[in-house]
Amino acid sequence: MNLTLYVWRQNGPEGQGKLEQYEAKNVSPDSSFLEMLDEVNQELIETGIDPIEFDNDCREGICGTCGCVINGRPHGPQEETTACQLHMRQFKDGDSLTLEPWRATAFPIVKDLVVDRSAMDRIIESGGYTSAYTGQVGEANQTLIPKPLAEYAMDAAACIGCGACVAACPNGSAMLFTSAKVAQLASLPQGKVEAAERVKAMTATAIANGFGNCSNHYECEAACPKGVSVKFIAKLNREYIKALPK
Amino acid sequence: MQMLQNSVGRKLVMAMTGLFLFLFVIVHLLGNSSVFIGADGINSYAEHLHALGPIVWIFRLVMLGLFGVHIFFGIQLTLENRAARAIEYNEKKNPRTSFGAMTMIYTGLILLAFLVYHLLHFTMHVTNPEISVGALAPDALGRADVFTMMVLSFQKIFISLVYVGAMVTLLLHLSHGIQSLFQTVGWLGAETLPVMEKIGRAAAVVIFAGFISIPVSILLGLINV
Q: Taking Cα atoms as reference points, which of A88, A109, A95 lies closest to residue A5?
């Protein structure tokens, strides 16, 4: 199959970017989206043009490194799928694809489709941890956690921190990302100790880093490659209300 | 007040002021629907309200506060959210959200403009003094004739259109606002959220239908002086 790509090219953080047109020829429907970009880049290199910069690492949908906005949707049109796990059979011969970086003030563009997501790390640093005294290894069943609670925490922990929620949110908010960590830790005994400070600190850090506010559009949930639910945002809100008198 | 700087804190303020404004809208609709009983209904309702004296003014001040806070934070949060995406996408799809949700700031500001007009019209009698209660003779029981004022007002097609247009705006605003406030206070889960979205929209439609039934009934001649 042959496709026309419109790719955001930008030299650096200060550069003036624009969409450039490229042709992707003889693309195998079985190749992944990133493999298609690899082949386009190979041709660009051979013709002496700078290859398209894009983030990627594990290429198996678990690391959260890859991602760009494909035809207006973060990670492309397939539900609950990272860009690396998206296959070209999702598109038709002759399709045009517009590729843009995550657009958020909190995510400065590094180059082309690569953005700096360290603002998300700063949210985690401000409270996405539990202070544990590490002595002897504890007995495995010392702290009993009911199965539904463990499942709930695990669903929240499924977040891979890719930033698609921020890219999808009309407000550029990181609330789904923040809530996934807040909900995961607040539902477990080890995380309850610092729950109040955590929710206040993490939500404050998000705003301080230029993320927007959540106004319940739920675009984050629709874009999340791991299906993280906005029920965790409701949980974050409950945790915030509980933390208010503290 | 850390809460008034926090993202979630201000979201809660929006939800709580929004809840009380929504409750006011319901009470206002129930009160106004006494127009269907006729002059006796709405005129005695209006007289009882005014007989409350200072309580009316306390109520008005509380309403002013609720509106003020809701509007202030609504604008502030919207400006922050715009700044959080300073550069727009060339192409962006929003498959999940709704038209009502995307236009909250606009419908909110239109409702503010309508509110000013509505007060100038029915409360301060500035826009149509010739058909205000001050210019009209009291009813048979000597009460201010709110009924005749409403009927003569809505018989003017322009005034009716303004009110119906404003209620379309309210419909859009509530279609997102009602479900949103339940999510914000943390009452919704994965199963209840889609249900509450439907309930919220249905409630918005009921409120809309209730309010426009008054000018529509008057225009159709179902309510007449």
A: A95
DSSP element (H, E) containing A8: strand A3-9
A79: which chain B residues are within 8 Å (Cβ-Cβ)?
A: none
Contact B222, B151 (CB under 8 A): no
Per residue in B69-126, pLDDT (tens digit) is: 999 999 999 999 999 999 999 999 999 999 999 999 999 999 999 999 999 999 999 9
Check CB contact of A203 with chain B, cutoff 8 Å.
yes
Task: Tell me whether 0.85 is exceeded by the ipTM.
Answer: yes
Q: What's the pLDDT tens digit per position in B146-164?
A: 999 999 999 999 999 999 9
How large is the greatest C-alpha to C-alpha distance in chain A, in angstroms? 64
Which of A107, A109, A199, A216 would you mutate first to test chain B, the one with the most B CBs within 10 A? Answer: A216
Nearest to B87 among A103, A204, A238 (CB): A103
Domains of chain B, start order: 2-86+97-219 (1.20.1300.10)
Which domains are delineated in chain A? 3-100 (3.10.20.30), 117-130+143-243 (1.10.1060.10)
Is A240 touching B (CB cutoff 8 A)? yes
Selecting from A212, A214, A218 the residue whose C-beta is nearest the C-beta of B96 gives A218
Is the CB of B55 inside 8 Å of chain A's CB atoms?
no
A8 phi/psi in degrees, rounded to 5 = -70, 115
- Three-state SS at A97: strand
Please give the pLDDT value at position A110. Answer: 98
**Measured between CB atoms, does A90 come within 8 Å of chain B?**
no
Structure tokens at A2: 């042959």
